[in-house]
Design brief:
It contains nine helices and ten strands. The chain has helices at residues 24-30, 49-62, 78-90, 104-112, 126-139, 153-169, 185-197, 242-256, 262-277; strands spanning 16-18, 33-38, 70-74, 93-99, 116-120, 144-145, 176-180, 202-208, 236-240, 282-287.
């Protein structure tokens, strides 16, 4: 009998596509190419599908969890949706803790996969408070926290998957890699792999400008800096304003046919800045999720 893939088998191997219009003038002037890695093509719709499955499978291998256990995670959206999907595939009860100021589409998506959702008041500390609550619940014996912020299986998913895919898809020609920075698993893992292939590859992180509130792009205080983050891998940072990230996300849909989230718009803003400064470059940036989970924000 023919063997068919499971949903889990469809995670990864996402397309890498060339931008045709938004970057046309800049790329022609400096002989650059800008490529978008379409992580929204993953089954739950984001780059976080990769580490979600990786963290659960590593916890299984280590004996930390077994089917039927309860998992707990603080999330701003994409990791929660991905973990809810992965938990459904694997047979776990998933409790997700999320600030109440985030889009309703993300809340609904988590519940569709069967996750239990706890909303915290954003005014009481946002994601930092959600992270603290998750650890408190674990201490009280309510479940196991996978802890995307400190779990090495997070960047490992990108060391094994996303990074090699980019290297192979560009035939080793990638010269610059750009990613929004949130949990930092994507940029840390991809940078680790790419710099092992060629140390001169430049890695640029997109961070929010002061006052900006961009889903998927944030800067942590020292007390909450993700333990998985390796700042020595980052060659430069680009500060992204909220309005320019939102406008670029809208342009991606209208001018390139790529319906992506706001952080992807921010990553492209950074990619265009880099393309203005360099020549003969192959610039890759991450489209980390789909735009349909932000419709209620009214930016498109």
């Amino acid at each position: 009998m023919k063997s068919y893939p499971t949903v889990a088998d469809t995670i990864g191997a996402t397309p890498l596509v060339r931008l045709q219009r938004i970057a046309a003038d800049i790329c022609q002037k400096n002989n650059n190419i800008i490529l978008a890695k379409l992580e929204g093509n993953n089954p739950a719709g984001s780059v976080k599908d990769r580490p979600a499955l990786s963290m659960i499978e590593e916890a299984e291998r280590s004996g930390k969890i077994k089917p039927g256990d309860t998992l707990i995670e603080a999330t701003s959206g994409n990791t929660g949706i991905a973990l809810a999907m992965a938990a459904a595939i694997k047979g776990y009860h998933m409790i997700l803790i999320m600030p109440d100021n985030l889009s309703v589409e993300r809340r609904v998506s988590m519940k569709v996969y069967g996750a239990e959702l706890i909303l915290t008041k954003a005014s009481e500390g946002g994601m930092e408070h959600a992270r603290d609550l998750a650890l408190k619940m674990q201490e009280e014996g309510q479940g196991v926290v996978l802890n995307q912020f400190a779990n090495l299986a997070n960047p490992l998913a990108h060391i094994k998957g996303t990074g090699p895919e980019i290297w192979q898809q560009t035939e080793g020609q990638v010269s610059h890699f750009i990613s929004a920075m949130g949990t930092t698993g994507t940029i840390t893992g991809v940078a680790t792999y790419l710099k092992q292939q060629r140390s001169s590859i430049q890695v640029i992180g997109a961070q929010p400008s002061p006052g900006a509130s961009i889903p998927g792009i944030r800067k942590w205080s020292d007390d909450y800096q993700p333990e998985i983050f390796k700042p020595e891998l980052i060659d430069a940072y680009e500060l992204i304003g909220q309005a320019e990230a939102e406008q670029m996300a809208s342009r991606l849909a209208k001018e390139e046919g790529i319906f992506a989230g706001i952080s992807s718009g921010g990553a492209l803003v950074a990619a265009l800045r880099v393309a203005e400064r360099v020549q003969n470059a192959t610039i890759v940036f991450i489209i980390c999720d789909r735009g349909n989970r932000y419709l209620s924000l009214g930016i498109y």
